[in-house]
Design goal:
alpha+beta; 2 domains; 5-stranded antiparallel β-sheet; 5-stranded mixed β-sheet; 16 strands; 17% helix; disordered N terminus
Length: 280
């Protein structure tokens, strides 16, 4: 890591690029699975500690630590953030893990002062589990416990993605104290890349023009309510944003369709706006 960007900005930039690339590949809805702790131990070398949390028939996460103080984490279910926090701390990772459901956000941002001089190799941003299929993805991370300094906290936030029904993750190194994540309604704009999907033929039409056909086919229709972006995003240049707090707005037949998505077979999500954005 270098000091050209604050820790938060650097990681969000990298994660946004990965996020856009994933969307461009049109990956199906994420279903997270967990590699076994034994497999993680092979990657780690000589494993000396293994802890996990069980939920149902599968484990929610696995944490391993090798003899060099390197901790490996694999996560498939983000809901037990408190348990994952305890497991990381038991292996000398000064961590706070928070789960943020769709439509919510942490009330206080930033929650602490960012550490800008992050030691190279302290941790990697979360990555998909190598070799997993498109619908069998989870997050894994490598953390070097020897590189933490006193008074630092590793803040890992796992958020349900309200746009693409997946999971986003942000990792930030902060100086203590770190404020707790108090959940409040999310009123921030979520930028949406305009990527042609299987139902792209509906784009440019109104809701009233396409509903009769979709209803006749027995397709389940849902809506993602959007509006013109106040400013195009500097990286992806999209023109529309989504506000989670506005998703219950009634959609009229005269609303415009600018993009579509198919979460799964037999379903179509129409990305609709009452007012079209100006041509770019």
């Amino acid at each position: 890591m270098n000091g050209s960007l604050a820790g938060f900005e650097e990681r969000r930039l990298a994660e946004l690029k990965e996020y856009v690339a994933a969307r461009a590949a049109r990956r199906p809805r994420r279903r997270l699975v967990l590699a076994t702790a034994a497999a993680a131990a092979v990657v780690a070398g000589v494993s000396v500690v293994t802890v996990s949390s069980t939920g149902g028939r599968d484990t929610a996460y696995a944490v391993t630590k090798d003899s060099d103080g390197i901790v490996y984490v694999i996560v498939r279910d983000f809901h037990d953030a408190a348990g994952l926090t305890r497991q990381l701390r038991s292996l000398n990772v000064p961590a706070v893990v928070d789960y943020v459901p769709a439509g919510k956000k942490c009330a206080q941002e930033p929650r602490g002062a960012y550490v800008e001089d992050i030691p190279r190799g302290l941790y990697q941003p979360p990555t998909n589990i190598p070799g997993a299929g498109a619908d069998e993805q989870g997050w894994q991370m490598r953390i070097d416990t020897k590189l933490f300094k006193p008074g630092q906290t590793f803040v890992w936030t796992l958020s349900d993605d309200p746009v693409y029904d997946g999971t986003e993750t942000s990792t930030i190194l902060m100086r203590n104290p770190v404020a707790p994540c108090e959940l409040v309604p999310d009123d921030t704009p979520h930028y949406i890349p305009q990527i042609p999907g299987p139902s792209a033929g509906y784009a440019g039409k109104t809701v009233g023009q396409v509903l009769p056909e979709l209803n006749k086919r027995g397709v389940k229709v849902t809506y993602l309510i959007t509006e013109p972006a106040p400013d195009p995003h500097p990286l992806i240049g999209n023109q529309y944003v989504m506000y989670p707090t506005k998703q219950n707005t009634p959609v009229g037949e005269d609303w415009h369709i600018w993009n579509t998505d198919e979460p799964q077979p037999g379903q179509v999500r129409l990305m609709v706006t009452q007012k079209l954005a100006a041509p770019s």
